[in-house]
Amino acid sequence: MNWEQIEGKWDQAKGKIKEQWGKLTDDDIAQINGKRDQLAGRIRERYGYTKERAEDEMKAWENDSRW
Fold first, then answer.
1. Domain residue ranges in the chain
2. Per its UniProt entry, which superkingdom is the organism in (predicted)?
3. Is residue 36 within 8 Å of 3, Cβ to Cβ?
């Protein structure tokens, strides 16, 4: 699934994002509001990941998500 599709299904994606990255708060999810770069930044902040690791995890999640 590409990010445009995820943005279009943001209400559904929020729960799946929360399952994948449980350290993200509801406020984090609300502030992200479908923006991929915002999600990457919050993952980096909450998990202490490098930019590359956050991107790798997000790409894997995008490819593995079953909608």
1. 3-64
2. Bacteria
3. yes
Is a pLDDT exceeding 60 seen at residue 58? yes
Between CA 50 and CA 56 the distance in angstroms is 10
Q: Report the pLDDT value the prediction gives residue 65, as an integer from 0 to 100.
A: 62
Closest to 40 (Cα-Cα) out of 17, 12, 13: 17
Give the closest residue to 45 by CA, choosing from 28, 62, 59, 20. Answer: 28
Average pLDDT rounded to a whole number, residues 61-66:
81
| DSSP one-letter string for 1-65 | --HHHHHHTHHHHHHHHHHH-TTS-HHHHHHHTT-HHHHHHHHHHHH---HHHHHHHHHHHHHH-
Pick the CATH number of 3-64 from 1.10.1470.10, 3.30.200.20, 3.30.750.24, 1.10.10.10: 1.10.1470.10
